Amino acid sequence: MRFMNRRDFIRVSAASGASLSAAKLLGQVTPGATPASPSAASSPAPTAPAGSATGATVSIPVAVSAVAGPDYETALDDMRARGRVNAVLPFIYTHETARAGIPTAQLRGGNFAIPHMEYYKDAGLTYEDMRATDYGDLDVLGRLIPAAQKRGIKVFPWILEENTRPRIANWEKLYEVDWTGRRATAHPGGPCTNNPYYRNFTLGLVEDYCRSYDIGGLMWGSERQGALFNALGLQHGNGEASRNRTPLVTCFCEYCVKKAKDQGIDAERARTGFSELSKYVDATVARQRPTDGYFVTFFRLLLKHPELLAWDNFWVQSRNQLMADIYAKIKSIKPAIPVGWHQWQNASFSPFHRAEIDFADIKAYSDFVRPAVYNNSAGGRMKTFTDNIQHNIFGDLPASQANDVLYHLLNYQEAPYDQVTAAGFSADYVAREVRRAVDDLAGSATQVWPGIDIDVPLERGGTPCTPAGVKAAVKAAFAGGARGVILSRNYIEMNPDNLSAAGEALKELGA
Predict the structure, then answer these.
(1) What is the mean pLDDT of residues 231-239?
(2) Cβ-contact 216, 209 below 8 angstroms
(3) Is 262 helix (H, G, I), strand (E, B) or coil?
(4) Are residues 245 and 153 in contact, defined by beta-carbon separation less than 8 angstroms?
(5) 249: Cβ–Cβ under 8 A, 6 or more apart, which residues?
(6) What mean pLDDT comes out for the span 128-139?
(7) What's the pLDDT tens digit per position in 171-212?
(8) Strand runs labelled E in 39-178
(9) Which long-range contacts (CB under 8 A, 24 or more apart) does 105-113 make?
(10) Measured between alpha carbons, how far is residue 419 from residues 382, 386, 402 in Å?
(11) Neighbouring residues of 411: CB distance < 8 A, sequence distance ≥ 6
């Protein structure tokens, strides 16, 4: 990952001629009515005319480095002027390079705000385990909020789960354990949502941000999926099944095993199922076609070992429970602020992961959802997902046909397999995915704020974003029924002209 120096970004921005005056920009974060608790009934929120961005939330994720330096107020002015931004989402708790904006070799990471230890009882972590020291004693969140508010910008901390385990004392015990007894250290594993230490840490973190800071909202996200599809490597990018003959399948820690038993799910039978599945994966890695083919053999495994699906759904429902608990905790403190969820873009490529993410199931504890609809980078991601699934379940098909089957299953009309990396996905994909989310949430107050692609990093052979492409994606989002957008994925990665194009589209739509 190559980062643009913050001063270089501002200099390029100025040279490009930001023509909009921040003082003339309209709009505040205007969430719809929110349920009082996860169990409260939802009612439809007032909506602007179809395709309109009037009153929309326009937010942008921001690496810590962009708001921790001396020119942080200039950066806020730039976001406001170029993108018509009225909410920023700093990655305020992170150990990850791109989110911090700090090179890996120099990054310590952690909480770039101040941990108030009364909220972290029984989390098993010390102040030193949590507190980021990369900017000394600076409370990045505490300094950012008043500066943003002065500009009509609200601050939503974005807590995106840390898949890679921090190399810091006491963190290991919060992470998942796979069916062979290995402790997770990186994706597709991560912290365990049934682990009381991790639950206490997460609920303490959101309580700390709500009680200690004047935040305008909060977003939480988990870029993971259940054990079954991790075992098969069904994700975009380099699926683990194609790299590792013993895929990481989680979680079988003591807390998960006990909770599963209480729900009537046999952990030992699940382990047996994953053991048999691993043999299937080993054979597919070696390109040894089963006698009855890849798909039939896989489906037979499900019939013989139904615990494979049961354990996958157990993981999904455990994550959903943590989300409901996060929502309830925040609403008990600040009932008026919006709380929402980031959806990993893998759901755009995998019909199996899409099945795990049912917005109708979570709308009672969601004020907004953020499906990542990165259309430009989606082409390369789609191809890598096709390559991964064609390695096992769809191994009976040529890659081009496997890609076509996925398009039919997902309701897409995009470039063919051999062209999709360079072509990317169209703005039509953005509109379809937003409309699908809106339809799933029908009858509730939950709004859809999709993540719009502005220079999201590409797979090899991808074509960079253009201003015209960004404008088309923003307009497609609102045509699909969005009530806000999250200009993504990270301010420090964005070409200033492309961010300006998003702002131009929003202005034309009435934002």
Answers:
(1) 88
(2) no
(3) helix
(4) no
(5) 178, 179, 227, 230, 231, 274, 278
(6) 98
(7) 999 999 999 999 999 999 999 999 999 999 999 999 999 999
(8) 57-62, 87-90, 93-94, 110-111, 154-155, 158-160
(9) 106/134, 107/134, 108/132, 108/133, 108/134, 109/134, 109/166, 110/166, 110/168, 111/205, 112/64, 112/68, 112/138, 112/140, 112/141, 113/139, 113/140, 113/141, 113/142, 113/157, 113/208, 113/209, 113/212, 113/213
(10) 11, 13, 14
(11) 432, 436
Cα–Cα distance, 461 to 377 (Å, whole number): 10
Q: Output DSSP code: residue 355.
A: H
3-state secondary structure 408-431: HHHCCCCCCCCCHHHHCCCHHHHH
pLDDT, position 22: 32
Whole-model pTM? 0.91
In the structure encoding, which two tokens stand for residue 153, read together?
């910008």
Of the candidates 40, 33, 5, which has an alpha carbon nearest to the alpha carbon of residue 368?
33
The values of phi and psi at residue 111, to 5°, are -90, 115
* Whether residue 11 has pLDDT greater than 50: no
Q: Which two tokens stand for residue 505?
A: 């589209």
- State the Cα–Cα distance between residues 507 and 59, nearest whole angstrom: 14
| Unique residue bearing structure tokens 């499906």 | 371
The one-letter amino acid code at 198 reads Y
Contact 250, 222 (CB under 8 A): no
Decide: helix, strand or coil at residue 34: coil
Strand 110-111 to 93-94 pairing: antiparallel
Specify the amino acid at residue 380.
Answer: G
